[in-house]
Amino acid sequence: AYLERLALGDVTPSELNDIRRFAEDKFSLSLPATFEQRSDQEQAELLFQALHRPLRICGVVPNTGEPGGGPFWVRHADGTTSLQIVETSQVDTSVETQQTILQKSTHFNPVNLVCGVRDFRSQPFDLMRFTDPEAGFISQKSHDGRALKALELPGLWNGAMAKWNTVFVEVPITTFNPVKTVLDLLRPEHQPAPSARLDDG
């Protein structure tokens, strides 16, 4: 309904405030510092641009120390912030404050994703418009026992979805059964369930 109102261009200052609160509260959207100084029409255009995006709802589990990234607020070059999924390789751990934030992270990478890829008119979004081509990173790999560095292109959720609106939802830890090495397959959660025993009455 908000996008429909904004698209019509007939929004009162009170409605603009409501839409702004919705954007900030529900999606943790960060609007430009000059937003308050803009005209009502400019504010409406900025809010439309901020909300008229694909949506991802990410089910995340509490951080239990598994290797990998997680959900974070990220500050961009223009001073705005957004919710992003960040891999450990993307964090400059030589900076103490960054290392501290990483260590204090409460949740792990998403284990479930629900995606909204059509707009309020039921038209499909051009998903390429909502990627961040600068989100590639260098990761540590190994091959035949040799340590290698690999330049990785933006991944599914940390670059290809960088400009999507994002909501993080905690889901039960039972939905997360990672397999990083072959030995992880020996964990209890990866063992077959016990056979059912029939009762002859």
UniProtKB/TrEMBL annotation:
Signal peptide: none annotated. Residues 2-191 form the DUF4301 domain. InterPro entries: DUF4301, Nucleotide-diphossugar_trans. This is DUF4301 domain-containing protein. It comes from Candidatus Entotheonella gemina.
